[in-house]
Structure prediction request, 1191 residues.
Amino acid sequence: MYAFNYQRAESVGSAAAALSADASAKVLSGGMTLLPSMKHRLIAPSALIDLARLPELIGVREEGPHWWVGAATRHQEVAAHAGLQQAIPGLADLAGLIGDPQVRARGTLGGSLANNDPSADYPAAALALRARILTERRDIAADDFFLGMFATALQPDEIITGVRFCTPVRCAYAKFKHPASGYAMAGVFVAQYPAAGAEHGGWRVAVTGVANGVFLWHEAAQALAQQSPTPPLLRDDAIDDVHAPAAYRCHLALQMLNQACQAL
Amino acid sequence: MKLNLTLNGTARSADVPERTLLADLLRDTFGMTGTHVGCDTSQCGCCTVHVDGMAVKSCTMLAVQADGCSVTTIEGLGADGLHPVQVAFSQCHGLQCGFCTPGMVMASVDLLRRNPQPTPAEIAEGLAGNLCRCTGYVNIIRAVQQASEILQKEAS
Amino acid sequence: MNAPTAQVLLRKEDQRLITGTGQFSADAQAAGMCHGHVIRSPHAHARITHLDVSAVRAAPGVRQVLTAQDVQAAGFADLPNAVQVKNAQGQAQVVCAMPVLAHDRVLFVGQPLVWVVADTALQAQDAAELADIGYETLDVVVTFADATAPGAVQLHPQAPGNTSVKFEAGDRAAVDAAFAKAHFVSDIAVESQRLVGAPMEPRAVWAWHDEAQGLTHVHTPSQGVGGMAAYLTHITRWDAASIEVHTQDVGGSFGLRSSAYSEHALVMLSARWLKRPVRWVGSRSELFVSDWHGRALRLHGHIALDKDGRILAMRFENQVDAGAYNVYFSTHIGARNLSITMGGAYQVPALHMSSHIFFTNTVPVSAYRGAGRPDIAYVIDRLIDHAAHQHGLDGLALRRKNFIPPQAFPYTTANQTVYDSGHFEAVMDHALRISDAPGFAQRRAEALQRGCLLGRGLAYYLEASGPGGAAKDQVRANFDAHGVLSLHALTGASGQGHETSFAQIVENEIGLPASAVRYFAGEPEQDLVGNSTGGSRTLYGMGSAIKNLCQQLMHQAKPAIAKLWGCAETDIGHVGGEFQEQSGNQRRLRYADWIASLGDLAAQVHAVGEASSGATFPNGCHIAEVEIQCATGVAAVAHYWAVDDVGQVISPAQVLGQVQGGVVQGLGQAFGEHAIYDRETGQLLTGSYMDYPMPRAGGWLRHFHHETHAVPTSLNLLGAKGVGESGCSGSLPALANAVTDALRQVDAPPMDMPFTPARLWAALQAAPQKP
Prediction:
């Protein structure tokens, strides 16, 4: 790693101020992506501002028709939360499928969303569950948040404080793990909401790992609404690499969709 | 940067560059070389220790992030004598070269804390963050099963 | 939570390893230690147009910066190429050795170029970034076709066609004649893909120079201090007496730790010049492009059968990728280690092999678990399976008909390898008996119900364990005043549990409790002769020397016993560890009790044991049932049965551990591991554990059943055959034959490894039949 300054943030406000003052400072949460990148000298932040212990960023709680999860909440906590397991089982299951146990002890929701790795799991949940990403200055609809590979709608000095997930009627997540990295080679999150006034009869299907970023699979949602077979997934931007050609990833998306639907 | 932590039950402090990893702190500053570094992509788990009771990869934590925490390494595992997980690993021949073993044992101890009676599949899932090149895992899974039986007996 | 210690543990090694008190080479600290870092080529093939390290030298904490010129000025040689062969015309192999640091050209991504030593590792890494190096990139070749194509870029001016040698073995004319009159002919080309060995301990070395003694101490993982010292002497050209190698705990080797690498030599050089301890520890990413790679062979096997299904001949044409340079054992892997058992367990009247060893812009290749022997076993049994299927013959019957029968031993193969023993048909029947062959049809039907294709594959492997390069294996032993026996030898462990096995042999032979026996391999014993660990020969090689030692100890004691009993030495016999008076009083005295009776004087008892133990021929039958999920292409091993003839077994638990480990490494190769290079750029696309799928606990062998079927050998005193690498030799063909069998259900043709989900799924999509 390159050298940097480290400070523990005393509040979200002071963290935001530190980010505004120094364009190459970065927020540190779980560090499961940030620290390996720094170890490989791919990035060189001048300062790390550690938010991980701010109590206002940690927790899982029901708020009416939503569940709020704090940005610094560890995957392990989300996965083990009894209330969430009941209300949004797909979300709890997803958190339990991220990485491995040691990673889940440290990695956080906010870190995952801010990074927006095209093979990360949480973006699929956020998109499917009509989430609102809450920052210290505004909240952003998930539909507007994910802008492509490693790109989000966040301003450079903006900090995610939590995510509000819309409690669905039912939901599930199925993931085909990359045999080496453990990321999603295809991850599909299926959520059903009340049909009244909703697109695709209330169904939302979000896919990660397949393309250059998480996306809503409208044809699949429509097929669920109509109880008709899902057409194969066709994506120009499907990832094609030594591990899996694009056609296989698209095929896996369909398999994971079926698997998720069976778990609803 | 100064930091204070409890290491294997003893209060310790250090003053290290911010970019010092927890693994480096343990190995180089405190001379606890039982925690091993086996990779640089947080994939192998050889560096697994407990921070505030949870298994984490010490190569993917900064030392300064452990300020104020309680850290347990393989050296601090058996309070006196050997932990049942350590004994089981030996008795079931769950180690050959021993390089992955400290991390594997620490991960196993935390796994059993969270799930005292795991099935073999749950053990395998619980060790998804740890690589072994020598044993083929069969005996490792047996070792964790044996340890869970012993711990259950001790608890009852 | 207390548990009693020593007695309860399986192996002597375990106490320190489970408590984290082992001593791996990166664990040691020494006052004033400084740290080395290697600047490596980011390009697969390039000319160095300029190299300016002045900024590196000036960086904080930097103590030394070395380039190829400095290495040359120090008089260093290139890295050794341990084995050379001639081609069929008797011409010498073109050997292109790897320099310690690249001169004006770099030939693979990762090749060491500059050496930086600083007070801390971080300072060295920081300083390294200040190097100003200009590269003019050149065309890259990473495949056989590209490397040997006319007009291809030449890696070495002395090696036209990027060819190191075209090696041949066997009788081409006899083979051609056999094929001409054959009734059935079949062939299959298979790839044993390039692998990254990845022992869990990263390669590390540290050294310090004792000015007063004129001795450089080198601490590093090795497979035997003698072998490592010899390589270091070769490279540095220093007086052998001025180098002392120390090896303590080794975190896995699999063949990769017997070599001295550039970093060893550079650490030693720096230690002498700086008069400070110097250490280098590789990062895993570095090791992916600097630990020698494994396998990287393409084998094309042909078989000729008569109308009754008897094998008339086998022929193999192989392409052996040496990587960018000839290092260590790549030639042996592609030549003798393939040909020595190229008939496998079968009676083959005519055999021929040609191996084209060539260069590519990739990491050099050397020994990795089996070093060619799993590869030849792989092609042989895939060929047998393929031929049987192609010609409507029963695969088991074909094997039975052609196995070398027990009465034919010692059996000399068509290319003059002498196998000493084997009961191949009995071992195969043993494996069939325990693997519920009759129930397979039902399991297959039930799998189909679940949308899965279940295949069953059988493989019979035979391999030659390492003959050993040294004239003999020696072990020196001495008792201390407490009656503890210390054994000193050259062959070292990296997980094989030698400390435990060898103590067990002593206990078996002379009744001295294993707890009173200690084995040391890591301390230099300049005047001992012996082999390093490799080729699965240590248990029987060193074990035989230890058995001889025990005989010597008993014999040595006889004068004292005779005096004690007041009888003639000739009246004293011994059985196991007990002296027996042959006549008169019929007195008995156990050796262990005699040693105990000596008290302090036990320290005067010492001896040297030795034995010459050559290659043995471990063999076995492995059967796998592999289930392919049609929807995803995911393959899982549903059942695995292995019956191995490893001769006399000393430690059943450790034999089982070796087989499990070897089979899972085979599984890794079969289902996912592959060091993949980009054809255009020569970049390693699978350069970390993020992209290189190592077997994990989740892939463990749920239903793994192993039995041994001992056919004793008289080729060494223990009657044991090597077991360390046989798991790979049995598993690769068994797993491949199982997958092939599964794919036959949909008429899909045979495929190469790795059988990844994506590739299996594509095969199923393309198959004529649907499940």
User: Anything to note?
Assistant: DSSP finds eleven helices and twelve strands in chain A. Chain A touches chain B through 29 residues (CB under 8 Å). The radius of gyration of chain A is 18 Å. The first helix of chain A runs from residue 12 to 21.
